[in-house]
Design a protein that fits this description.
The complex is a heterodimer of chains A (about 180) and B (about 150).
Chain A lengths: L5 H16 L11 H40 L5 H16 L6 H7 L2 H11 L5 H19 L16 H16 L7
Helix pairs in contact in A: 1-2, 1-7, 2-3, 2-4, 2-6, 2-7, 3-5, 5-6, 6-7
Chain B lengths: L1 H48 L3 E12 L3 E12 L4 E8 L8 E6 L2 E9 L2 E6 L8 E4 L2 H12 L1
Antiparallel strand pairs in B: 1-2, 2-3, 3-4, 4-5, 5-6, 6-7
Classes of the chains: A mainly alpha (about 180), B alpha+beta (about 150).
């Protein structure tokens, strides 16, 4: 089984799209040409949503991991300090003595992003915007697994290409502790 | 100008020929739908006479890119337990066949009747994009289908 990375997921996504687009008429027997195009469109949309979900899950994991590492590695940069404060705050809110790993697992990623967004200096407007975009995409991550019993309207579905770009920018600007721009 | 005129005349002739041929295809398809509807009504006549099922013909409006707007005969079966089965003509131009009638209950397509090589047969899609399962359409297979539906 290959390693799941942004690049491998994007590769899989492009491959799936190529397969759907090259499906010949034998895959659509007895459909009208209009029904065939609708079916092809549905398959493309489902593939888009599947991959958006996986990419968003990866982004969620990367943010949690960065949050955890900030404390585990005792990093001293401003964003890490902020994350450590958030860590303590969250731990105090909860009963029991949560392990660091559990704090990272349970805290809402929304909250981590909101903290980074609030911290970002006026010069780092792009980071603020990216955190806001990531927060707007997160409802899809929670909605998608239970979409067959929808509790509400469908949230914004991010494009896999946009998510890959967003992930790369966050990696460079937020996860890269030596060259952080926030 | 003469060359342009010639070209346009050719196109017009071609269009008229296509139109005439499409009209023929449409008329034959409408007739085939009607034949299926009548055949089913004949098969069910004994049950209808006993009041177990009500058979009615339902004209179905269809729009197809090549054939335009037209109506074809569908069938509505209402069983004694109020369950309804509809045979709805869908289109003459479908991929891999010469016409399709959907067999529907409420809004779910339970099976299809497709016309292939001059014969009608049942078809059912087991997977979304896999080859549909097909079997013959005759009095016995229709009877079996209804038995499964009523059960």
């Amino acid at each position: 089984m290959h390693e799941i990375t942004i690049e491998s997921l994007m590769g899989d996504y492009r491959f799936a799209l190529r397969c759907i687009r090259s499906m010949d008429d034998n895959h659509f027997l007895y459909l009208t040409p209009t029904e065939r195009e609708k079916m092809r469109g549905r398959l493309v949309e489902e593939t888009r949503q599947d991959h958006a979900f996986k990419l968003l899950a990866l982004l969620d994991a990367a943010l949690r991991n960065d949050f955890y590492q900030s404390r585990a590695c005792r990093r001293g940069d401003p964003v890490s300090m902020l994350q450590r404060r958030l860590h303590t705050e969250f731990r105090n809110e909860r009963r029991g003595n949560l392990r660091s790993m559990d704090v990272a697992r349970r805290i809402a990623v929304d909250r981590i992003l909101l903290a980074v967004e609030g911290h970002a200096s006026p010069l780092a407007g792009a980071v603020k915007r990216d955190c806001r975009i990531a927060r707007n995409y997160l409802p899809f991550l929670r909605w998608y697994p239970s979409r067959h019993s929808p509790p509400g309207p469908m949230p914004l579905v991010p494009d896999p290409e946009d998510l890959a770009d967003l992930h790369q920018r966050l990696e460079e600007q937020v996860f890269d502790h030596d060259g952080r721009t926030v | 100008m003469t060359e342009l005129e010639n070209l346009l005349r050719q196109r017009l002739d071609e269009r008229r020929r296509n139109h005439a041929s499409h009209a023929g295809v449409r008329e034959r398809w409408i007739l085939e739908c009607e034949t299926v509807a009548r055949r089913i009504a004949d098969w069910l006549r004994p049950l209808e006479a006993k009041g177990y099922v009500d058979v009615s013909f339902v004209p179905t409006p269809i729009h197809e890119e090549l054939l335009g707007d037209y109506e074809a005969q569908g069938v509505r079966l209402v069983f004694v337990d109020d369950r309804v089965l509809r045979l709805v003509p869908m289109a003459r131009h479908v991929l891999g066949a010469d016409g399709r009638i959907d067999v529907m209950s409420i809004n779910v397509c339970l099976a299809m009747l497709i016309r292939r090589d001059g014969e009608w047969c049942f078809a059912r899609r087991e997977e979304r994009t896999g080859p549909p399962l097909t079997w013959r359409f005759n009095r016995d297979t229709f009877h079996d289908f209804l038995l499964e539906f009523v059960r």
